Amino acid sequence: MDESTKVADKQGLNRILTRISHEILEKNRGSNNIVLIGMRTRGEFLAKRILAIIKRIDNVELPLGILDVTLYRDDFRTSLKQPEVSVSDISFDINEKDVILIDDVLYTGRTVRSALNALMDYGRPSSIQLCILIDRGHRELPIRADYVGKNIPTSQNQEIKVKMEEIDGEDAIYIIEV
Amino acid sequence: MPLVSKHLLGLQGVAKEDIELILDTAKTFREVLERPIKRVPTLQGKTIVNLFYEDSTRTRISFELAEKRLSADTVNFSLSNSSVKKGESLKDTVKNIEAMKIDMVIIRHSAAGTPLYLTKICNATIINAGDGAHEHPTQALLDMYSIREKIGRIDGLKICIVGDIAHSRVALSNIFGLKIMGAKVSVCGPATMIPRQIEELGVDVINNIDEAIQENDILNILRIQLERKAGESLPSLREYAKYFGITKERLEKNGKNILILHPGPINRGVEISSEVADGSDQIILNQVTNGVAVRMAVLYLLGTLN
User: Are the beta carbons of A71 and B300 separated by less than 8 Å?
Assistant: First the structure.
């Protein structure tokens, strides 16, 4: 195993998500027009957590969608491995909504770019706000997050690994040296 | 996990994992087809030629839509307005088209083996859209997708293919594909339309349509292909309709709610009655919708291979 440092545990993650949930509600003045969209895979589970927290605070069940951006990626011609696609599931209208786009790590910004293109194919939301658990820097596109869990400046040979109980068996964030 | 093969020539000998991958991937594209904007940028910059040496409505439009919905550039070739009329050979035609820098060729031809031949003379990815009485893999894939959508599995199901088995590429691709996926396949039709030694492919032959209805979960009704010499194997269409046509009365007589597939185009009142074809629980038009998704999956999986 490579050298790894734990930067947040279950409690830490929970605190971050609680704060972000409050920020989302504060910035949008309540939850009236908000829909949540989580990006496969970890973003989906983060979105479900935020959904639960907002339900506790405001007693509303927000619409939740899941977005798979594989078909919109820009590295088909350069990557050696063919990415596996899975199904997006957005069963509500996003027109005129404030979309909160949720993912675990913000790095080059290319995945978010794909997600923006994908969302535009579903409709014309009145705004899209980006919610990110970890911003690790090294952007290659002019993209920034509206809600950031933690800023972790990394070097290119480090990796951020977000683990979530639903699929990884534990809640934690690691920095891994590779 | 990429497909093993660069081309899709048929389903004979294809790995089960590959068929599953195509069917699973098709689910993604089925969702794309439900969106307000039914287009994804995945195959941007790829050029695909639809080379149809034989008439087709469904398959050609289906492939063309699938290509456009993946943002590929498409060129259509049809026999009637091409230089084939001036005597140009298939090889020269393909070589010339290839020289125009294309990535994929969708080929339909009346001669079995044409797609395989193309893989030997050009570098493009070849997809078989029907070659003679040999194979029509995307049709069988969309049949299997439709079965999975309706029943949830293929493994262990009993499926009977009814009609002119001898002249049908749909039948052959279905037999190969369904058997790989673990279904029990039988064929039913007049003896003149059942090829000899078909049992060697591991299928049962049923001569009586009522028996076929009773013993199976699904019927895949083939079209009586008048353009492929069906007349030589049949005394008359009326006789075929009487002994093998699927009608409401026949289904009711056997007291069975059976899933019915048909690859189209339908000869109403011959192999299937309008009542059954348009019935609420049948999935014939659903098959057509699924066809676009399945073809998008095949194009995606082959088109993004490096």
Answer: yes
